[in-house]
Design goal:
mainly beta, five-stranded mixed sheet
Length: 433
């Protein structure tokens, strides 16, 4: 078994070029993740990942332990998870169902609440998408219409009582003005709470009617995955008046089947296609696929970005790992302030376990590093903290922490899955230390 050994040191800051450490992959050979397509991922405030699969239920991963929930060992009514959302209170909301065997499920960590047609106003037991408006108002895309749920009351919109052209709802996104943008087989639909507008091939420049993915950027532009596997049409952008179309013929989009679109806090678009992951930033394209990355399964189902900038990528899992995590600055699994005591000095502790296994076998593939940030001159102001890992030649491998932190004791979990075996060093820099 390959092993990683970490050593510690304090040093003055110096600039070194980063290399490697940007990818972490999970599959059944190096984790407890079941062999199945990953359809959705949600990350809570504690850094715990909730992973939805196609046919194998729901998986919880806290950075160390894996827990599987399915219809056989929990109240989850279906093993087909289509959508995940975490509300302001930390509750997990699950959209599930294949051929109407699921529904909307709330899980608070202990208790399950299942909403189905038999006990609620939900119109169908297959929930394809979940959008959260405010703290507790949900908009659900189902196979029998659009449902609004405020925690108590249900309002259902269908083609016979609204401007929806089709009852099958693939995706819902909400803009800063509260407008709902809805993707369905017959076009893009806008609902402002009163009025409905439908954009399709007959009345707009949208290249195909089917809209599978919808996202809204900070400027209010709507980004769409357009078409389907039979009539793929690429990526469409709508600013309320004008349309811009990107496809394999006029751009570096790797495939015209677009399954997922996520926009990061910097405005960069991350696009999941059937032939890889695309990053689109200010007109520039970067494509990650089986040829240039650990993303060995090119069929990207879902993308989620956590608070540390990690991109959690769910794939079909047929030709490669079903779950891949990517971060340009190095993957960081979690940083946690473990108590409120103010340390008397700056301190960097030995990681545990050490050595620890790299990829190649099941078990705990992470190590935990503890460090203490001292209160300067008796105050509790924040300091700029940087925790960096280097190889034995002094080359920077990855940055685990790079942000302002208050005085206190912290831990960070580090996954070295994609590093070769050997000895590594890590360095803590805080303020002007």
């Amino acid at each position: 078994m390959r092993k990683i050994i970490l050593m510690i040191f304090f040093a003055f800051a110096f600039e070194l070029k980063a290399q490697n450490g940007n990818w972490v992959t999970y599959n059944s050979s190096n984790s407890e993740l079941p062999t199945a397509s990953v359809t959705a991922v949600a990350i809570n405030a504690n850094g715990t990942a909730w992973i939805g699969t196609y046919g194998k239920g729901l998986v919880k991963y806290d950075g160390t332990n894996w827990t599987i929930f399915n219809s056989g060992n929990s109240a989850l009514p279906s093993d087909y998870v289509n959508a995940l959302k975490i509300d302001a209170a930390g509750n997990l909301w699950i959209g599930a169902g294949f051929m109407s065997d699921g529904g909307l499920i709330k899980f608070d960590g202990n208790n399950w609440t299942v909403f189905q047609t038999s006990n609620s106003g939900i119109p169908d037991n297959s929930v394809n998408s979940i959008a959260l408006e405010g703290s507790q108002n949900f908009w659900l895309g189902t196979n029998e219409g659009l449902a609004e749920f405020d925690g108590t009351n249900w309002t259902v919109y269908k083609s016979d009582n609204s401007g929806l052209p089709n009852n099958t709802i693939y995706s819902v996104a909400i803009d800063a003005n509260g407008n709902k943008w809805i993707g369905c087989p017959d076009g893009l639909v806008k609902f402002d709470g009163t009025n409905w507008a439908v954009y399709n091939k007959s009345n707009s420049a949208i290249p195909e009617n089917s809209v599978s993915a919808v996202a809204v950027d900070a400027s209010g532009k709507i980004w769409l995955g357009v078409g389907d596997s039979y009539n793929p049409a690429g990526l469409a952008v709508f600013d309320g008046t004008n349309w811009t179309i990107y496809n394999t013929g006029n751009s570096n989009l790797p495939d015209d089947v677009v399954n997922a679109i996520v926009i990061d806090p910097s405005g960069v678009k991350w696009i999941g296609t059937s032939a890889g992951l695309a990053k689109f930033n200010s007109g520039n394209w970067t494509v990650f696929d089986a040829n240039n990355s650990p993303l060995k399964d090119d069929f990207v189902n879902s993308i989620t970005i956590d608070s540390k900038g990690n991109k959690w990528i769910g794939t079909s899992g047929i030709f490669g790992p079903p779950l891949v995590v990517y971060n340009e600055n190095g993957v960081v699994l979690d940083v946690e302030r473990i108590d409120n005591n103010l340390p008397l000095k700056f301190e960097l502790f030995q990681n545990y376990p050490n050595p620890f296994p790299a990829c190649g076998g099941k078990g705990n593939l992470t190590t935990t590093i503890k460090y203490s940030i001292h209160a300067v001159v008796g105050t509790a102001h924040e300091l700029s903290v940087r925790l960096t890992v280097y190889d034995i030649l002094g080359r920077e491998v990855t940055t685990l922490v790079n942000k302002a932190q208050k005085p206190g004791n912290y831990t960070v979990r580090f996954n070295a899955c994609n590093l070769p075996s050997g000895v590594y060093f890590y360095r803590l820099k805080a303020g002007d230390l």
